[in-house]
Amino acid sequence: MKKEIVMMVGPTFVPEKVLKAMNRKSISHRSEEYCKIHGKVVEGLKRIFGTENEVLILTSSGTGAMEAAIQNCFSPGDQVVVPVIGTFSEQFAKMAESHQLKVVRVEFELGEAADVDRVMEYVTEETKGVFVIHNESSTGVTNDLESFGKALEAKNTLLITDSVSGAGGLKMKMDEWKIDVVLCGSQKALMVPAGLSFISLSQKAWKATKSSKLPKYYFDLNKAREFQKINQTPNTPAVYNVFAVEEALNMIFEEGLENVYKRHINNTNRIIEGVRKLGYDIFPKDDRYASKTLTAVYAPGKAKAIVKGLKEQGVIVNTGLSPIEEDVFRVGVMGYVFEEDVGGFIEALAKLS
Ligand SMILES: *Cc1c(COP(=O)(O)O)cnc(C)c1O
């Protein structure tokens, strides 16, 4: 039973069953027992990603997988295009620059999604990659990956996507949408503590790794791929998190992936409707691209006080991120969040209004 209503945007609430899955004796990451679990987890993650490609398990937070994507697919001086719609896309751009890539930023107003046609105006023969955040957690906006995939499919450009706050909560069809790299972390929609990230590469992306000249060691994905053949990792993985992911995936597939997506959509729609009834609006400029895993609520000048007031009532949500931290608070429905939690949140918010 929940004592508090936890609707954070990550780390998210870890269900009792998942916690219990970690309450067991330590096993070697080279043991048969481990390899079996690893293999099962990878199969489950493939379903979450919508791919037949390998999904590699890295021991890092989501940011590590972002770095792995850059280190393995690119070389110094490569030109990449990054649509910037908020904090996490800006972080991706900075990370690319720190690896000596030539970054072309395409800036959008905060609260907007990346317009594919406008981004494509900057994509040339020279462009080696386009970095798109699936679900921008700072503004609560979901980008249209399918359209990016269509626009880039015939080009020699990789579509690199960060789905840290998407996969497992939002529909993700890596193969069908022609995405070259998908990555996510354990502590958002997968309702597992932070510590693991997951990354999958298309055949086109694996080919690019062969000519990549950036330094890589811990995140050498070709090495990881070799170990994956025997359901292992090059170094010690966060074994207890792997136990947890196994259980979390069981829970997700028991409920049914489509049902999980629907629950996220329904809960978010209730939040949007509820906050609007109380006189607030959402931060995204158009409902069509408003995220279904978290809602950025627009409360100019009052956001921090609201987060505090909710906490005093046992409802845990997140403040906004710079530069909109005074005006936006964020409510997550990722993972283990149900209708009654949403009801509790709206009730608590009503008391503050
Ligand atoms: C949470 C998040 C990250 C960063 O993940 P860490 O696990 O904190 O490294 C990256 N991108 C997006 C969109 C996120 O929501």
From TrEMBL:
The modification N6-(pyridoxal phosphate)lysine is found at residue 188. The keyword Transferase applies. Its cofactor is pyridoxal 5'-phosphate. PROSITE patterns: AA_TRANSFER_CLASS_5. Coiled coil: none annotated. One of its GO terms (biological process) is glycine biosynthetic process, by transamination of glyoxylate. GO terms for molecular function: alanine-glyoxylate transaminase activity; L-serine-pyruvate transaminase activity. Residues 24-342 form the Aminotransferase class V domain. Substrate binds at residue 330. Pfam families: Aminotran_5. The keyword tRNA processing does not apply. Keywords: Aminotransferase, Pyridoxal phosphate, Transferase. Soluble hydrogenase catalyzes both production and consumption of hydrogen from suitable artificial electron donors or acceptors. This subunit catalyzes the tritium-exchange activity. PANTHER family: ALANINE--GLYOXYLATE AMINOTRANSFERASE, AMINOTRANSFERASE CLASS V. Belongs to the class-V pyridoxal-phosphate-dependent aminotransferase family. Heterodimer of a large and a small subunit. This is Tritium exchange subunit. It comes from Tepidimicrobium xylanilyticum.
